[in-house]
Amino acid sequence: MKGSEWVLEPDAFQGKVDQELTIHFENVGEVAHNLSVGEFPADERPVAEQDEAGTFIVKTDTIQPDETTSVVFTPESTGTFPYWCDVPGHREAGMVGEMTVTE
Prior knowledge:
Elements: E1 2-4, E2 7-9, E3 12-16, E4 21-27, E5 36-38, H1 47-53, E6 56-59, E7 68-73, E8 79-84, E9 96-102
Parallel strand pairs: 1-4, 3-9
Antiparallel strand pairs: 1-2, 4-7, 5-6, 5-8, 8-9
């Protein structure tokens, strides 16, 4: 996955419940970015509410331009979960996407 001003690519991906996922996050932009994956499906709790509450399944470190980081996690339930950059103002600028978890 790549982050730049003001895009996360891809803006959607899929995983399977109880199967380990590894996300490699590369900052190809010109300012610091990170990636948070929401704890609640998008239809249960909006991204803004999850962001404000600090509720997420997993979150990368905030990295500088030309840096890469990785996170490993295992989704425990099905649904469509939001992900976003939580550097102030970046989510609002469009750095959001959706992870769909199936059985």
